[in-house]
């Protein structure tokens, strides 16, 4: 297997023709593919990388550097395959549990573009990190609700419920109120606490393991260039793809928060009993000490999260070793002491009703709402410093997505608690007088607002559907004029116009997200107030109101309970199928391809950032080839389709300035402006894309009106340089049946840009543009110079940080 870091180290023939050797680096998009499909050859060989991500060539091209005459006028194709970073083995199914964490991490990167607002930028990052912390507490609190409250406290403490669950027999008291050693409530709670504690440990393990597997790649060393430092965009900073310090610190804080949540669920219940029962003074004192220690631990966790976020101007190699070790260990020690305290013998203690979960879940919901509102205020302040009408939701995209992450976390936690309660009780209806009281009434209220929310979403979708139909009908008569000389076909025109209209729905996504988030916030606030004021489930709280409101409350509660249960079952079923079925796992991998491009700056338990492996891989590959060919002025053409164009742009920003000036970009089906530029304006906004256009040699972009993902990049070139965007490509290439095309041409949409002649035409122009006009002088050293390069990244299938 050749070592392509030092290719062409000897041989006079290679030295005579090096400037004519080009490299085409293919990088697939979302969904992944195989190197055989990318290279169009069943015989491939891995030349660099491992099982997770690697560079492949056709077997016949493995020694292409030694045969430069065979590649005159054509590039050497290579394929970079990274799909296993997101849809590899069955353990990826566990990432579904981390979906709310991934969504809140996206909100962190949706910060609006700002000018001279460093403190406000830091405030934005802090608010998102605190929102992420509440999601961790919510998840662990939901596990505590299921294991500690519903199972150990309510069901095991109720003889009728425990009699139907033989596996709870050793925890249940007998008819006289007494039983075995484990039957005392405190000991039951201590034993059940092992479940949420194990969940917290699992989250810590996954975060630690995925960091080592995905994000511990050393980025390309950066040159010391003062001018480059001044003008460098965030994605070009040396530490952008290496946030080890922040992830390690947040991992310690969130792990400690999880253990403290479990300790609070068990310890505060025991302490409350000791204060009310007038028991031994020692236990009462220990209860107060425990409460104070839990508060102090929570303050320490918040302060750790409060500390400054990412440091992108240098690699985060320095770790707070004492902090990341002692904070989780201290919280775990406190949890163990709490379990020992709760397990102290209290023969007079009996379990009745619910544990005080309303206050816990209500407090989390209130804090989350306040954080989202504060985040919206900060986002608006940032947006006003550099307003851009193309920015999604006028800068409110981050708060809107943060709200959706909180709602998603609430649905997952409430759905799990509801289904376990139904399973234990059998009544299937909260507040119906079953053997147990069920989950806190707030969770029932939150489930009850799902039907009205779905009504709003359905109305929005219907409105968008009508607009899409009208647009398709309006554009249909104009389709035949784009294909002069061909016979008009009404059905064909209808299909083309409908495809274009549906593709345009992508530009309406901000409206859907914004309205959904706003309605979710209002309904969530109403549910919180209703639960706190009435302390009853909606159907009982509506008793005595007019029949319309009473019926609406009962219907909404019944539908909400069914919907949240169905959603939870669907979620679990999907995860189980993904664990066993690679094709289903690939579908989930598409979601991760889009959502895990960004580093984990807001939540350490989010799925790992594949770009922290892929971008250094691409940068190192291009850098080593370019450095090997610097004697003949080797240059690069980086071409990318779909998500590959985002990786190509990110890799180009990480190149040395002297290398980047010899780079050309060819993007197609690219979401760089349409999605990333609108939703992540601070990093892919007009200023960032314009700077990339100025810093590379040339940039051409291909797009189609039928593409729902890609679009124009809308960069206005400086001076007399070529336009970035080529005119929209025809799709389909042929309108109807012709002698040259007797069968109907497919509507390609987001895929197969290589099938359009414009692709080969633009690539050839870039290769010709980059070819040195005069051969570079031979180096004086004994070692001959390396070949000139061109890199084209072609994917197969579609889609100031935190401070």
From TrEMBL:
Signal peptide: none annotated. It comes from the Bacteria. InterPro entries: AB_hydrolase_fold. Residues 782-803 have a biased composition (Low complexity). Keywords: Membrane, Transmembrane, Transmembrane helix. Residues 774-803 are annotated as: Disordered. The chain crosses the membrane at residues 93-111, 123-143, 189-206, 246-266, 286-306, 327-344, 364-383, 395-417, 449-466, 509-533, 559-576. This is Integral membrane protein.
């Amino acid at each position: 297997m050749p070592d392509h870091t030092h290719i062409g180290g000897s041989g006079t023939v290679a030295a005579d023709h090096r400037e004519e050797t080009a490299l085409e680096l293919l990088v697939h998009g979302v969904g992944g593919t195989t190197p055989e499909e990318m290279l169009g050859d069943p015989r491939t060989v891995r030349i660099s990388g491992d099982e997770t991500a690697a560079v492949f060539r056709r077997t016949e091209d493995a020694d292409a550097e030694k045969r430069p005459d065979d590649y005159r006028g054509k590039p050497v194709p290579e394929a970079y395959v990274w799909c296993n970073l997101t849809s590899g083995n069955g353990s990826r199914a566990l990432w579904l549990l981390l979906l709310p964490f991934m969504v809140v991490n996206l909100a962190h990167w949706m910060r609006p573009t700002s000018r001279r607002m460093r403190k406000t930028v830091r405030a934005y990052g802090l608010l998102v990190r605190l929102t992420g912390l509440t999601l961790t507490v919510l998840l662990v609190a939901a596990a505590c609700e299921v294991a500690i409250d519903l199972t150990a406290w309510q069901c095991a403490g109720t003889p009728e419920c425990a009699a139907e669950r033989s596996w709870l027999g050793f925890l249940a008291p007998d008819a006289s109120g007494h039983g075995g050693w484990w039957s005392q409530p405190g000991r039951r709670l201590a034993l059940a606490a092992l479940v949420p504690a194990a969940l917290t440990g699992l989250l810590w393990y996954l975060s630690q393991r995925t960091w080592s597997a995905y994000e511990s790649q050393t980025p390309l060393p950066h040159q010391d260039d003062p001018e480059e430092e001044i003008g460098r965009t965030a994605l070009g900073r040396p530490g952008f793809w290496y946030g080890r310090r922040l992830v390690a610190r947040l991992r310690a804080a969130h792990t400690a928060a999880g253990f403290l949540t479990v300790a609070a669920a068990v310890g505060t219940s025991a302490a409350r009993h000791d204060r009310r029962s007038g028991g031994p003074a020692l236990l009462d004192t220990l209860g107060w000490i425990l409460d104070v220690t839990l508060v102090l631990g929570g303050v320490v966790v918040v302060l750790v999260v409060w500390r400054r976020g990412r440091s992108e101007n240098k690699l985060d190699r320095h770790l707070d070793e004492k902090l990341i070790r002692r904070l989780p260990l201290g919280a775990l020690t406190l949890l163990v002491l709490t379990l020992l305290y709760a397990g102290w013998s209290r023969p007079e203690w009996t379990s009745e009703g619910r544990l005080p979960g309303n206050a816990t879940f209500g407090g989390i919901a209130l804090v989350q709402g306040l954080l989202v509102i504060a985040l919206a205020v900060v986002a608006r302040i940032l947006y006003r410093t550099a307003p851009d009408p193309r920015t999604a939701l006028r800068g409110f995209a981050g708060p809107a997505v943060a709200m959706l992450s909180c709602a998603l976390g609430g649905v997952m936690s409430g759905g799990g608690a509801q289904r376990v309660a139904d399973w234990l009780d059998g009544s299937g209806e909260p507040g119906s007088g079953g053997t147990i009281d069920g989950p806190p009434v707030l969770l029932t209220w939150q489930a009850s607002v799902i039907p009205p929310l779905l009504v709003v979403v359905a109305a929005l979708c219907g409105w968008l559907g009508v607009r899409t139909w009208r647009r398709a009908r309006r554009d249909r008569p104009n389709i035949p004029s784009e294909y002069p000389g061909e016979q008009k076909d009404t059905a064909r025109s209808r299909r083309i116009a409908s495809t274009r209209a549906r593709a345009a729905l992508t530009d309406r996504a901000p409206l859907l997200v914004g309205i959904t988030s706003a309605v979710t916030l209002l309904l969530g606030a109403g549910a919180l107030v209703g639960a706190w004021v009435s302390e009853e489930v909606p159907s009982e709280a509506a008793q005595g109101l007019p029949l319309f409101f009473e019926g609406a409350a009962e219907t909404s509660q019944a539908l909400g309970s069914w919907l949240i249960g169905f959603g939870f079952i669907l979620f679990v079923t999907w995860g189980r199928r993904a664990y066993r079925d690679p094709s289903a796992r690939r579908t989930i991998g598409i979601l991760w391809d889009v959502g895990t491009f960004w580093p984990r700056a807001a939540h350490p338990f989010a799925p790992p950032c594949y770009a922290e492996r892929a971008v250094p891989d691409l940068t190192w590959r291009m850098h080593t080839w370019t450095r090997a060919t610097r004697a003949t002025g080797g240059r690069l053409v980086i071409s990318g389709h779909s998500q590959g164009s985002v990786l190509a742009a990110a890799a180009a920003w990480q190149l040395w300035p002297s290398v980047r000036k010899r780079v050309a970009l060819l993007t197609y089906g690219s979401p760089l402006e349409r999605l990333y530029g609108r939703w992540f304006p601070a990093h892919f906004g007009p200023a960032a894309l314009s700077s990339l256009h100025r810093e590379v040699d040339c940039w051409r972009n291909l797009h189609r009106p039928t593409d729902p993902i890609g679009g124009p990049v809308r960069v206005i070139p400086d001076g007399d340089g070529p336009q970035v965007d080529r005119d929209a490509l025809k799709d389909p290439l042929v309108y109807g049946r012709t002698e040259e095309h007797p069968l109907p041409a497919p509507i390609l949409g987001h895929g197969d840009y290589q099938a359009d002649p414009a692709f080969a035409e633009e690539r050839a122009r870039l290769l010709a543009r980059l070819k040195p006009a005069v051969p570079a002088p031979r180096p004086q050293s004994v070692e001959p110079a390396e070949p000139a390069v061109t890199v084209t990244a072609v994917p197969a299938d579609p889609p100031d940080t935190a401070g």
